[in-house]
Amino acid sequence: MNITRMDLADAGSPERLVLEILKCEPQLPIPVPIEELCLRLDIHEILPLTTKGFEGGLITTPDKFKGTILFNAASPRERRRFTIAHELGHFLMPSHVPSAEGQFLCKLQDMRELKGGESDRRLKMEVEANRFASQLLLPPPKFRVDVAVGKDPDIRQMTAIARKYDVSKEATARAYVHFREEPVAVVVTHNGRVLRDYHNALKFPKLAIPAGAMVPAHSLLRRRTHEQGVASDIDETDAGVWLHVERGRQPAPLYEQVLVQRDGYALIMLSRDVASGDDEEEDEEGEMTSAQRLKRRLDRDC
Ligand SMILES: [Zn+2]
C-alpha cells in the first residue's frame, strides 16, 4: 500500500474519503485489510478496549496528528472490523473533534445509527463514521456487482457476500437493501420479536410491525419450523402480514425468507418485484419538504 494521509487532505465527507482511498489503492483486496490501512493512515496502535460498555474508541489529539484505535476484544471478528473502520472514520473526518479528554468512545448502538443528527452533533458524527465504515468495507464498485448477482434477492446470496467481505450479516444487510434493485427489507428478530429492520425507504414501505412487537403468526418464521443456520426457501406471504394494506386494494406480492441464527436470533428477508415499489412510496417522504426530499435522495445516491 502506498496511501498516506496527504492523499486525503481535501476529503471532507465519508463518501469522498472512501472515493479517494479507492483511487489511491485501486488494487485494495477483498476483504479490505482494515488494520493495515489504519497503520498507513497514522493510526499507530490498534488495541483491545479496557473500558466496559463500549464497542470501540479512538484516542487522539485535537490536531489528530496520530491516533490509537480501541476495539472490544469480546466481539466477533466481523464486528471488530466494522468498529475499527468506524473509528478510522472519526479519525479521518476533519469535522470530528474528540472530547476534552482527547477521545471518542462509541457504544454498540452508535455503530447502528444510520440517520439523524441534524441537531445532534454527536449523533451526526456516529452516522458519518458508519457511512464511512460501510463504504470502506463494502466498496461500492465491487459490492454493487456482487449484490446484483442472482435472479431474486436471497439471504443465501447476502450471507455469501458477508463472508466474502468479512463483514457481519447485519452490516451487509444494511447496505444490501440499498444496492439491490428490487425493494428489499431485512428484519432482525430475537425470541420471536422484531428488534429492528433495514430497508430503503424510497423503494420499500414502512413495516406495519414496530420494533418490540411479536413477529406476526402468519409470517414464514412462525408458520414453519426452521433449521438453525439453514436459509429457508423463498415463499410468498400475504403482504398484509407485514405491511399496511389499504382496504379494497390488491397489494403487490411479498416474498419472505428466513434464516434462524444462534441464541434465538433470526433474519427475515422481505422482498417484492422490481416494478412494485413505485405505488407505495414511504409515508415519511410525504411529510418532508421538497428540499428535505432532495437532500435525502442525494444522500442516498452517494
Ligand atoms: Zn463512533
From TrEMBL:
It comes from the Bacteria. Residues 64-174 form the IrrE N-terminal-like domain. InterPro entries: IrrE_HExxH (IPR010359), Rad_response_metalloprotease (IPR052345). Pfam families: Peptidase_M78. Transmembrane segments: none annotated. Residues 293-302 have a biased composition (Basic residues). Residues 276-302 are annotated as: Disordered. Residues 276-287 have a biased composition (Acidic residues). This is ImmA/IrrE family metallo-endopeptidase.
